[in-house]
Design brief:
- There is one protein chain.
- With 1164 residues, this protein is mainly α.
- Among the domains are: 234 residues, no CATH class; 181 residues, no CATH class; 309 residues, no CATH class.
- Helix content is 34%, strand content 4%.
- The strands form 6 sheets. A 4-stranded parallel β-sheet has the order 6-5-7-8. A 4-stranded parallel β-sheet has the order 10-9-11-12, sandwiched between helices. The protein has a two-stranded antiparallel sheet with strand order 1-2.
Amino acid sequence: MTTATITIGTIAALASLVCWALFFGGVWRMIRTIAQGQKDTTRIFPIWPRFKQMMIEFIAHTRMAKFRTVGWAHWLVMVGFLLGALLWFEAYGQVFDPEFHWPLFGDTFAWHLLDEILGLGTVIGVLVLIVIRQLNHPRVPERLSRFSGSNFGAAYFVEIVVLLEGLGMVFVKAGKIATYGHAHAGSDFFTMQVAKLLPASAIMVSIFALIKLMSGMIWLAVVGRNINWGVAWHRFSAFFNIYFKREADGGVALGAAKPMMSAGKVLDMESADPDVDAFGAGKIEDFSWKGWLDFSTCTECGRCQSQCPAWNTGKPLSPKLLIMSLRDHGQAKAPYLLAGGKKDLGGDEVGLVDADGNVLQDKLDAIPESARLEAERKLVGESEGATGAVIDTETLWSCTSCGACVEQCPVDIEHVDHIIDMRRYQVLIESDFPSELAGLFKNLENKGNPWGQNSKDRTKWIDEMDIEIPVFGQDVESFEGFEYLFWVGCAGAYEDRAKKTTKAVAELLDIAAVDFLVLGEGETCTGDSARRAGNEFLFQMLAQQNIEMLGEVFATAPQQKKKIVVTCAHCFNALGNEYPQVGGKYEVVHHTQLLNRLIRDKRLIPVAEVNEDITYHDPCFLGRHNKVYDAPRELMAASGAKLKEMPRHGERSMCCGAGGARMWMEESIGKRINIDRVDEALSTNPKKVATGCPFCKVMLSDGVTAQTSGTEQEGKVEVVDVSQLILEAVKRGAPEIKRGGRFLGAASLGLSAPTIEPEAKPAEKKEPEPAKASAPAATDTKEKPAADKPKVGGGLGIGGGAKKPGGGAPKPGGAAKKPGGGAPRPGAAKAAEPEAPAAEETAAAPAKGLSIGGGAKRPGAPKPGGAAKKPGGAKPAAEATPADTETTEATATASDTATEEAADKPAAPVKGLAIGGGAKRPGAPKPGGAAKKPGAAAKKAAPEADSGPATDEAPATEEATVTEEAPATEEAQVDDKPAVPVKGLAIGGKAKRPGAPKPGAKAKAPATETKSEPEPESEPEPETETETETAQATPEPAEAAPEATAEPEAPAEPAVPVKGLAMGGRAKRPGAPKAAVKAESKPDPEPEAEAEAEADAEPEPEAPAEPEAKPEAEAKAEVASESAPEEPATNGSGPADAATLTETGTSKAKGFGIAAGKKRPGNR
């Protein structure tokens, strides 16, 4: 120790006192500023899990390591700063005495080694970070830099100080070695080499120590004066920010949105008071203290910005800049808040006032002018000018709430929660939100779904399935015996592309014998879009409605049995993470997780590899928000698909642009997010783009269409759900698929064509015998064994012995209808055989509304297999099941030209879905229903007073042997009065109208007869191999003879026009009690036994079936469509697109009546 060193030491000590004072002054100001936020007592406990997670993130650097190079470099700098503090404080002694070291351990080998590593590590680490910052500098182009908008002055200052600190550690040690020796090759391997370049000088050692000490002191002073330098303050605040994160288990703030809180308590919208409680964040002081801590901790590293889909596509939103703006605004306004200033909703001063409410101007004037001006600024609004809003409106509404910013933030800032809080205030208090959201909120509130569709339409997809799916409240009244509730979701029920996923999952669960049910009309939107848009009131309303419904479903189920499977990632997140906040706790699994489990358990066995190049898009609310990354990829691997990952996948997956209620908003700034994502997907050159969310599927489908139109890839890239790949792998080429959940009736899937059996005719006043099966020889009357069932083709095509919607399981010996024939349609008679006598039929009533035909089962329709009642309450006759392989997802098959004119009035054009083909029209007798005895109608009461004219035919059992010359071809005798045009629901036949007596009740008025026109010739179906084998037993159809007028049997009152879903025939209204269906007439024998020509091929779900003879009701509708003007369907939600009938058949409705090229949700 010399005079010079003592002087140096004294100067350093005095200077350090000033620096420490400035630093602690900054600490105090920051604490007081953060305390201006709202109370939040949920952030402290439990202590151990929070502390443990903080230490894991600190020591293992798990958050920083997401950027690998930056991760290890920052770890070196962090350790050098924290442990190097011991070396830094050691400099206090070294400026006085160059030989100074800590007692006890300061001269040990371990301490020397630690000094060596810390010095080198700090220098290396900070040099790497400096290089990275320069390589990513926003000089060119600005949008590609994550540092765009960051405070470069503060960053450069911090980097220089850290570099000086590291060099100080190295050179102080090297100077001591050069002056005093005592080097060890094991602990001083680098500094001993530097020491060879330095002279032996004690003063030099003290100067090096002074530089090391004073660089740190200057840093403390400067940082203390600039508490908005997050790049410096995060060294202290990051520990607290990580500890106080939202999730008690230490998880990131993803999944559920933060509950809306005020004054430390969660708000219940039924009891909240906007005059007292803070509805979201309308002012900076409305954020909680944790929000203020978030703002102060931001390091301005820009990782959130680099991952943000809005920023990367030219939108004004940068999560980093948003947090920085809130931080700067809060700290600038803090003096006003600390002085007691406060404004009400109208902007008037209510804080600095006297007892009479007069403003205390002297206290107000004592506040710095800059703080008073800052207090006048709006939090959200137009941001132009110095007095503009802090956050621009476009910035706030650009967020997709994908969570990429939260996932990437190294200090656990909760960006999405803050954005949702600001949206809540704008929606609930200001009523200032994008105009598109007004329609969304209205539809959710009035209709319970974003599209504004009727709840009765939620079960339409069931009509298009070849399996029966139990609906709670209609088919079953209890969850007992079931394993899962299948939550279909709004998109899965209404959106055509999403319905493919719904049907694929349902079929896979059926194949795996998983007992499940659906809610049907009882299901309501989970409210995800409402909550992400800031409408907390609407979310809580929808959530409570669903929780009440689920409470009924799970009333008898223990907690561990409350299992829900969902296909929508947004429903998955809402039900599993957000509903517990409002009282609903369930076990929720995504369909990819359940299907993956079923494959592992060998309940689903892929038999045919997809063997195509596929890329996978991780849905944000499945991946980042819920960490489900492996299950979808394992499913794709099981299907045999070749996965080609996009550059951004997994936790860095790019958003599709539909989250945060952006699905329902226009995107008018910058590049469309879905287009950007599709460009990345197409860069992998895939055959299919797979995903696990219906919103993603819609956005990606639209993007693929837009980006491939007019290119070589047009029509070659398909967007599918993962479940569709598994269904293809499970079914394609399989010789037989065993089905059968508890309510899903066993069925088999085969590749052979079905065996065609003739229809049976009714017996007279005795129990009918089972129908005899037709053989290749026409005179063969041997009964077919029960095991010889027809097989069903692939896909959703219904055929063979497979159970058709609305049809019972095939019975041994039951008469089979020709494929595509289905049950007779209301008002339509079959073409007569050459020797067959003509029968009468009534004119078809114009079908309005949905006009569902085909093989589809209407929601709530009677279960398959219900036999028709015999007059006088006789036992039901034998059932006959149709073998309809041509019913597809659109359930429309019409390509021939067979038509028939009604007696008095042509049939109106079919509206709605326009389902045709041989499918069962709602209200038609169920396949398998026995026909009434001849003449029974005269002895029995007529149909119910509210039902339409009796126009339906029913399959009948046959008692006699079928021969070549005389097939049994009696036609039904029906009433002859022209049908009254039916409006709205168009319930005809013997369907029970709302409030009408059940089927079987006596009619109020006699029926009148109807006279029909002669039937035109019906063109035969192209023969298949099976038809060739049975040609002798199936004569070609001939022109039908004119129908004779039947004597009136039982007069009936004309049908009263009603409005609604246009349900016809004997269809049971959804929710109405079930009843056996009466068959009024004997059907004509089929013109030709049609075999399943496409049994081996798996049809596309929406592709039209092979041409076949049109049922006459559909033919009449087609004729009328060319002459009669179309009328809008009235389903309660506005006009719908009418189905277009052309020469090639009925057109399929795409989406929700959105024409090709028109805007779908999420499109400009």
